[in-house]
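[Automated response] Your request has been received and processed.

Submitted sequence:
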Amino acid sequence: MTNYLAIVHKDHNSDFGVSFPDFPGCVTAGSTLDEAKDMAHDALSLHVKGMLEDQENLPVPSKLEDIIDNPDYSDAAAILVISVSEEKSRTVRVNITLPENMLRKIDMVAKQRGMSRSSFLVHAAENALTAPNKNNSSSQPV
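Generated structure:
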């Protein structure tokens, strides 16, 4: 397990936003601090999983002292420690067919989020698999 720092931001009349100094583009939010903490763990776990599947190296975790001294984080409502597993799952290459304009949209959004195409598609699939089923009130993953 590796521990990374998560910065919690809170503006008036907003949810608790969470960002990760070591993972630009990996962000989440929650309506309560507890929900933000849980969402932070899920978001970072998925992000790290995608990086590992893409055979990307994980960054060295930032030091708390460096985060506290950084003026970009001076408005932090909280700093959380999020543990993630570095266990690699076996990556399998697949061939899929997509409309060309959809592929351009995927690549554009992935780039905006600092993600690879594969990582973006893994995150999108994970979100779809864990989202509540509109025809069934259960929110259990498939």
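Summary generated for your ticket: The chain has four helices and four strands. The chain has one domain: 2-130.
If you did not submit this request, please reply to this message.
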